[in-house]
Amino acid sequence: MSTQLWTDRTAEYPLECDHCQYPIPGDPEASDEGRYCSVACRDAADESTMADPDAYKRIRSGVEPLDSLLPNGIPADSLLLLSGEEGTRRAELGIELAWRALERGEPAVVVSVANPPTATLERFYANGWNVLPALENDRLRIIDCFTYRLDDPEDFLEKRNDWSAFLGEAAADAIVDVRDPSDRHEVANSLYGALDDLEMTETGLVTIDSLDELESLLQGQLVRDFVTEIRATVSKARFVPIVAAATAADEDAPAEYVFDGIVDLRLTDQLTPSARLKQLAVRKLVGAQFLPQWVTYEHEPARGLFAFGPNTDARQVYDLGTDPSRPNRPR
Asked: What's a Gene Ontology MF term here (predicted)?
């Protein structure tokens, strides 16, 4: 919850409950230990303590163009859809969201459906983000829904190059094999096991790299059932946000009402007729304020996605964006 919203509420209800920390709208339930908004909080206070609601109910993604549209952050109990056409760097956005969680010192789980685990890890390294410490410190899990879709998984593993083999060995303890990725219960249980191992409640992030690929495995209604289930058991029960990516044109994807939030990504020549620029906007986000506008962005290794304004010369971004030594690099 934003400071401004909290200020507005406490101005109207100046007393805060000593258990749940929310404003007390009426006469408090008093005891020798404090003041409470309800009998439930008064009784619960004798047995437990409640964390500050702001500590886990909203997160800042750490992704510049996305945060620019979300002044109060993302509700932590959200299932968020990244909906975009090919070429919008949708996959990079999903990887960056996981990396920013690791940067905050939180755990992350990546459900890898479209790529083998080593290719998913390589996406981090392609951006200069070293995840080996997170793997060794037990803060990152990869749910492998890809390898056992191959006709000969063992042959695939044997033919990896030295770097991929090294990554696979280094990450072995952090990779969760899904033997039958067409079984939504096995996929879900593998996710729950990873969350339990990493003690992910009120912390961290889950990303799913491709609902399109999941659709090819589970088919229509089963995908929606899977998404509905993990929304309830992960986001709503644990306050762990889930971010899932899908192609905007996929008519077989789960119905949009299943998601708490939708981020649209598109290619446009609206600002510069000779260039196809990338833009994103928040179409909806339940329980949060967002700015109703498109943000133009680009991607740069190490920096990730960055925004640039409508008055920025796009040629400057593409000429200078990859050279950190150039002083006119847009920020």
From this structure: ATP binding
